[in-house]
Amino acid sequence: MRGFKDNAASEKVNFWFDPKKRAILFQLLTFGIVGLLAYYLISNTLINLEKQKIATGFSFLQKESSFEIGESLVPYSAASSYGRALLVGALNTIKVAFIGIVITIILGTIIGVARLSTNWLLSKMAAIYIEVMQDIPILLQLFFWYAIFYETMPSPEQALNPGAGIYLSNRGVAFTILQAHPAHKYMLLAFVVGCVIVYLIRRWARKRQEKTGQIFPTFRVGIAIVFGLPFITWLAFGTPLKMDPPKFVGFNFQGGLMVSPEFIALLMGLILYTAAFVAEVVRAGIQSVSKGQKEAAMSIGLRPTLVLNLVILPQALRVIIPPLTSQMLNLTKNSSLAVAIGYPDFVSVANTTINQTGQSIEGVALIMAVYLFFSLSTSVFMNWYNKRVALVER
Amino acid sequence: MEQAVQIEVVRPPITSVGPIGWVKNNLFNGVFNSILTLVTLFFLWKVLPPFIRWAFIDSAWHTTGQACRKAAGACWSIISMNYRFILFGFYPYDLQWRPSLAMMILFGLLFYSRDRNHWKKPLAYAWIIGLFTMGLLMKGGIFGLTSVESTQWGGLPLTLLLAVFGLTAAYPLGVILALGRRSKMPGVKVLCILYIELIRGVPLISLLFMSAIIFPLFLPEGVTFNKILRAQVAIILFTAAYIAEVVRGGLQAMSRGQYEAAESLGLNYILTMRLIILPQALKIVIPPTVSILISAFKDTSLVVIIALFDLLKTTQSVLSNPEWMGFSREAYVFVAILYFLGCFSMSNYSRRLERELSRGD
Questions:
Q1: Measured between CA atoms, how close is A57 to chain B, in angstroms?
Q2: In B, which residues are within 8 Å of A45 by CB distance?
Q3: Which domain holds residue A25?
Q4: Does A48 lie in the same domain as A97?
Q5: Are residues B285 and B160 in the same domain?
Q6: In terms of C-beta distances under 8 Å and separation of at least 24 residues, what long-range contacts does A16-20 make, across chains too?
Q7: Best residue of B51, B332, B347 to probe chain A, by most A CBs closer than 10 Å
Q8: B16 and B49 inside one domain
Q9: Looking at this predicted complex, what is its ipTM?
Q10: Which pTM was predicted?
Q11: Which of A51, A137, A368 is nearest residue B202 as measured by Cβ atoms?
């Protein structure tokens, strides 16, 4: 044995037979190739940019944008800077993605549960919905909804009025909303305070239950606080109830809340498409909890709501959350297709910016950076949440 | 002693077997379900008959656009009068047999590849020859075929081309990336992780923009690629990242014993991967790979945004013709049916394959 070792040590091993040295060599080679490729592309790009006299750098962000944006959550005009325009685009993306995600989860859950229903008709309808929606490209669906809105809706003069205060036309949907009042700010504040109080109560109630076994009706009290506090605030301000109905002035509606057809088509397309995928995720999650779990929970005397809350949901959510996260990210990424139907999301604004300034590299880099930021922040949050619900093994 | 015992066969009541029993068990078990059934039926009754009336009874099938506007129902004439343009785009009219033949070859190959018993070496050669023939048929230029510039390619052949060539090229790249991500060499691993996560974090459209606007800047002056090839590269780079993740799943499912057994036989890394690990890992991930194929097929529609004339774009250009303006519903429904047929057959096939593979044969 000794002799063998000595032999191996004394014999000079060719360095390409030594795994460690070979690995270093291989990595150096890889980096070399990647580096050379990058150098080649970058030097070409720099030469081309100089020849075409395209400016580089992000100084264009401070320049005046001189284009209008149809809808915006923050004040914006053509005199604002490109940076401001891109912020408007990013906010519009967040708006459509956030509303889309909330509604998609609700709709997807309903369809997923319907798919598992014992009712044959309902289950088959859900199955057809899921199959059809999954198999048609989202872009085609967006075009379809946009075209339907444009072709079937009347002009604003002959707007449809399906319910009190709602007007449908090819310029969008106009809703009646409450007129702005200082009370709203305080009601929102009261709502937030209510949420914090409920969170504290829940912690206290859980601790007390662990100590004494007494159950505190957290849910009912919580609902009362969360909705009661803003209501009391509203009463304290003298119940402001003045409405702001949309009025037809000139060529379009003014006042109220106007939702553009682009936004509606985009939201509808995203929701209907993603809900089909979410439904499949939810179905798989529910099916993953074995029947025995439910029966065991019932046999130890838990009430049906507790069976759902303590036994079924925690196990189903563990299966549901990772694929659900990726569907939510897909929805956010698909919202970039807004550029095809003219909703001013981030990609669409960045595209206009690229066309006006010619600074395509910076523009595309910004698009990628913003979506990477969305993706990474969502997955960080979801990983944190996933860790909380994940199975803790002893 | 033996006594014939008359056994009276008690049949279940008529209400629990047969069609009545089925309806009772599946549609009207319980109050809630009965209400659901009635609501669904009411909904169907409200939606289906008007739809059938619109689509089949009041519809115009082969008329001019003017005649269509008088019809109360759907105007399928937009399809029947323009189907050549929708399907083939600006491809020269007399030469459209060539893309048709190319598509026939593709469908034939796909159909033949359905059976797993045919998955042998000759099939791989058949695919290589087939893909080459398809390219030749589209492009022409030799064997007495008139050359057709790729700027004139469009419609369904372009959609299929982007999807099939995209996946064929993305697959090996994806496998390499997956192996790189599982590699023990930190440098290679970091590069692969960066690439995969970067691509998966951004929408395809940003890559397409990149291919359309930035890619020409990357190349020295005078060297240009055509738009289709650039979009194809973007699709390949995008799909490869997703394939890499799917393949990584398969690699992770391999037990350590497989690697150790290969090592103990004295196989090096390349042989271990080629002979032991990859054949097993890739087999496990066939069903998710088919789903990637489906999304790649759907995603090719995004090239509309960079103005390539794929199936969706040719349809839109028909719709921008004043004669056919306003018939978007019919046109889009037609395109949707084409996409649905493609994706549905693939997903159906993937489910069948999953069943076969889980049976272990």
A1: 15
A2: 214, 217-218
A3: 16-52
A4: no
A5: yes
A6: none
A7: B332
A8: yes
A9: 0.85
A10: 0.84
A11: A368
Q: What is the CATH number of the domain that holds A359?
A: 1.10.3720.10
Q: Cα A225 from chain centroid?
A: 29
Q: Do B339 and A151 touch (CB under 8 A)?
A: no
Whether B257 has its CB under 8 Å from any CB of chain A: the answer is no
Per the structure, how many domains does chain A have? Answer: 2
Average pLDDT, 10 consecutive residues per value, chain A (394 residues): 48 70 83 88 81 74 76 77 86 90 92 86 90 91 88 75 74 75 82 90 88 82 86 80 71 73 90 93 88 90 83 84 87 89 88 84 88 85 75 58
Is the model's pLDDT at B240 over the cut of 90?
yes
- Dihedral of the alpha carbons of B21, B25, B30, B35, in degrees to the nearest 10: -90
Q: If you measure CA to CA, which chain A residue comes closest to B327?
A: A151
Find the domain containing B207 and state its range. 82-91+148-359
pLDDT at residue B359 in the model: 67
Residue A41 to residue B218, Cβ atoms within 8 A: yes
Could you tell me if residue A355 is inside a domain? yes
Q: What is the DSSP string of A101-165?
A: HHHHHHHHHHHHHHHT-S-HHHHHHHHHHHHHHHTS-HHHHHHHHHHHHHHHSPPGGG-EEEETT
In a domain, B96, yes or no: no
User: Cα–chain-centroid distance for residue A369?
Assistant: 16
The token pair at A68 is 């209008």
Q: Lowest-pLDDT range, A230-234, A280-284, B21-25, B147-151? A: B147-151
The answer to whether the Cβ–Cβ distance between B206 and A41 falls below 8 Å is: no
Residue among A41, A134, A142, A148 with most chain B CBs within 10 A, to mutate: A134
Shared domain check, B271 and B309? yes
